[in-house]
């Protein structure tokens, strides 16, 4: 089974739509393209990646699709479109591409926690489900109840929770009971999966594997390995560590799984969810 990095980004700064790139992320505020990631993948035997949007524009989605067209290891792209747009079907028609398999509204950046439950957003989600696209949920713990409500109402919509819903673990090891309950509720919905990614950044400088273990263990317990996929969140990862360091942490966190379960987390789940077999 092919190993897949289920969450990574590329960008070219002069495109001008990465509005979140202020001085707080100066170490990664540079052009980052396939030739920068390729050595990491080769070193760790990773055959494919899921390329995920990093700007809330359709122009960036087209840019990522152009990369996918010329980069064999990019198995597919998760892009962006305004889900609430009245002309959403036409926008999706214009973006149609064999490698565009999912969409990701940047919910963490929307002040209104319940935005995704608005009628216009629900219509957008129903439309992407109708087209066989997936929904990457970039959420925080505050979103878990409304995300569960929306997902329960749209059982045909495949949902993956990015970065384990970004639990608040900086300085502490316990992600909190509200997070645990929220993730359990989402795990009860069969079309929902979870990405084991982004945790180093949530824990912050000086993070340890033991500090991440309560999150990883809970996600693996409630979703099961066949609904958990590993991702690097590279190059955002570089703000808190390295690709090699996250690989080592991953291997420790998954050490209690058998070979078949590890294979699911390291590639099988992503291949099934995104519909790619390499």
Quick take:
The protein is an alpha/beta fold. Helices cover 40% and strands 13% of the residues.
Computed Rg: 17 Å
Strand order of the largest sheet: 1-2-3-4-5-6-7-8
**What is the CATH class name?**
Alpha Beta
Query: The CATH topology, please?
Result: TIM Barrel
The second-level CATH architecture is: Alpha-Beta Barrel
Largest sheet: 8 strands, parallel
Number of strands: 8
Give the terminus-to-terminus CA distance.
9 Å
- Mean pLDDT over all positions: 96
Q: Unreliable stretches, pLDDT < 50, 5 or more residues?
A: none
The outline comes out as: globular
Structural class: alpha/beta
* Topology as a string of helices (H) and strands (E): EHEHEHEHEHEHEHHEHH
- Percent helix, as a range, is 25-40%
Number of helices: 10
Strand content: 5-15%
Total discrete domains: 1
**CATH homologous superfamily designation:** Metal-dependent hydrolases
What features would you describe in this structure?
The protein is 40% helix and 13% strand. The chain is an alpha/beta fold and 278 residues long. The protein has an eight-stranded parallel β-sheet. α2 (58-70) links the parallel β2 (48-52) and β3.
């Amino acid at each position: 089974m092919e190993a897949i990095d289920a969450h990574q980004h590329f960008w070219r700064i002069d495109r001008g739509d990465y509005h979140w790139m202020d001085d707080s992320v100066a170490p990664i505020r540079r052009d980052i393209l396939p030739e920068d990631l390729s050595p990491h993948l080769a070193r760790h035997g990773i055959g494919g990646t899921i390329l995920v949007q990093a700007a809330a524009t359709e122009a960036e989605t087209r840019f990522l699709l152009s990369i996918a067209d010329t980069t064999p290891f990019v198995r597919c792209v998760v892009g962006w479109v305004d889900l609430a747009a009245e002309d959403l079907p036409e926008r999706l028609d214009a973006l149609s591409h064999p490698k565009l398999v999912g969409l990701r509204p940047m919910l963490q950046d929307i002040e209104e926690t319940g935005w995704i439950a608005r009628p216009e957003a629900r219509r957008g989600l129903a439309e992407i489900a109708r087209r066989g696209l997936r929904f990457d949920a970039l959420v925080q713990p505050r979103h878990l109840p409304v995300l569960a409500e929306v997902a329960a109402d749209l059982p045909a919509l495949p949902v993956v929770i990015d970065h384990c819903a970004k639990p608040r673990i900086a300085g502490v090891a316990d992600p909190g009971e509200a997070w645990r309950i929220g993730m359990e509720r989402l795990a009860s919905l069969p079309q929902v999966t979870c990405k084991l990614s982004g945790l180093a950044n949530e824990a912050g400088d000086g993070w340890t594997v033991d500090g991440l273990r309560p999150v990883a263990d809970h996600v693996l317990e409630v979703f099961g390995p066949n609904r958990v996929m590993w991702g690097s969140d590279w190059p955002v990862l570089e703000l808190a560590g390295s690709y090699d360091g996250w690989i080592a942490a991953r291997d420790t966190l998954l050490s209690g799984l058998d070979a078949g379960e590890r294979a699911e987390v390291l590639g099988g789940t992503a291949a099934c969810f995104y519909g790619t077999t390499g």
